[in-house]
Amino acid sequence: MASDPLPAVEFWFEFASNYSYLSVMRIEAEVQRQGVRLLWKPFLLGPIFRGLGMENSPFVGQKQKGAYVQRDMARQCRKYGLAPWTTPSVFPRLSVLPARVALLGADQPWIGAFSRAVMELNFVKDQDINAPDQVGAILTALDLPADALLAQARSDDIKGRLRQQTEQARAQGVFGAPTFFVGDEMFWGNDRLEDAFQFARETA
Amino acid sequence: MASDPLPAVEFWFEFASNYSYLSVMRIEAEVQRQGVRLLWKPFLLGPIFRGLGMENSPFVGQKQKGAYVQRDMARQCRKYGLAPWTTPSVFPRLSVLPARVALLGADQPWIGAFSRAVMELNFVKDQDINAPDQVGAILTALDLPADALLAQARSDDIKGRLRQQTEQARAQGVFGAPTFFVGDEMFWGNDRLEDAFQFARETA
After folding, report:
1. A77, B151, B174, B176: which one has the fewest Cβ atoms less than 10 Å from its Cβ?
2. What chain A residue is nearest to B173 in terms of C-alpha separation?
């Protein structure tokens, strides 16, 4: 097999995370622009936060920061040309089902469109992203076999793989989302997406 | 008096804060480029953190985040053309004396040069920034009357004014540094400096 000439960037994201939302919505356009190979790494932040001694997102635990994040998200959505920001009525939402489906599709051509649709369900339509009928409707709209994928997402194999992936995040030092890796080099936050891509190109 | 035609940006910073260091080093060049009026607002993060229930900087309290910040600072210093990053041997350093001097000089032409010299003492030379001889040497190098300024910095008036300024930061919702304000609009972090300046220009 020929080796892949494109530098690789790991993209660790969580469907409940509002700053992951910003990166998910814009990352495939950046991939096209910058010519990197993207490795989609869905994981769960809940076990990571609990492992760090936090009972919840810092945006919930720290009221001042949580209030600020609403203003920041409104401005960032405007900056990136996304739908006007609305504070979700539930935060952070349970995201285990879409994370399992994303793990199934991580190297499939539909991973980007699926992930954007789940993020819009959460942060634009303000709806439950963990409901099988909602996730199924997204898959069907992408002309995918929703029932078969949902059944596979509930298999012990995929459940175990998502736990392993979250453990891998912890082992690599992840403490928030989104997080990007280029080899061992870690970049935290949507604000570092461009830096991570540039680093990948420079060190390829 | 003629009104000032330039939009105003408040710059809340702390000499012990490494991300404040990045902003202090580059902000006067940005002021020139973007045409805003800068209001220097030195304050102390310690009382703010304690008021939020934190005993220390989150970079000390959260080991994973603290380790990451070292990598991030190394990359950011390179990006901005600053001296190579060295992890300070004491973090966060006591900063009450330089903060009082900065409050004295907040609307003086030497505030930028003084603030950069204190930041370099902390984050490049890795030395005590709270020692009167060190702060005095910086003032002397700027052709300022060091003894008179240090005496004034220790006056009850300036001590009280720094406490008031830190209380003002808290009242405005500040939870970290650097923080920028354009009117009531708050921007947190060195990564938002450009956004704050642009917002000031757009809303002037």
Report:
1. B151
2. A64
Q: Is residue A92 part of a domain?
A: yes
Report the pLDDT value the prediction gives residue A1, as an integer from 0 to 100: 47
Confidence of residue B204 (pLDDT cuts 50, 70, 90): confident
Q: Is residue A174 part of a domain?
A: yes
CB A146 within 8 A of CB A94: no
Domain region containing B106: 8-203
Position B2 pLDDT exceeds 60: no
pLDDT in the model for residue A185: 97
Residue B183 pLDDT greater than 60, yes or no = yes
B188 touches chain A (CB under 8 A): yes
Mean pLDDT is lowest, of A124-133, B5-14, B70-79, B103-112, for B5-14
CA dist A20 and B178 (Å) reads 23
Count how many Cα atoms sit within 13 Å of the Cα of residue B116 in the half-sphere of its side chain: 13
| Chain A environment of B65 (Cβ under 8 Å) | 175-176
Tell me if chain B has a CB within 8 Å of the CB of A68.
yes
Count how many domains chain B has: 1
- Mean pLDDT per 10-residue section of chain A, whose length is 204 residues: 75 98 97 94 95 82 89 97 96 97 98 98 98 98 98 97 98 97 97 96 89
Q: Would residue A163 be called left, alpha or beta, if left means φ above 0 and alpha means ψ between -120 and 50 degrees?
A: alpha
CATH code where residue A83 lies: 3.40.30.10
- Residue B50, chain A, CB below 8 Å: the answer is no
Cβ contact A185–B71 (<8 Å): yes
- Has residue A1 been placed in a domain? no
Size of interface A-B (CB pairs under 8 A): 43
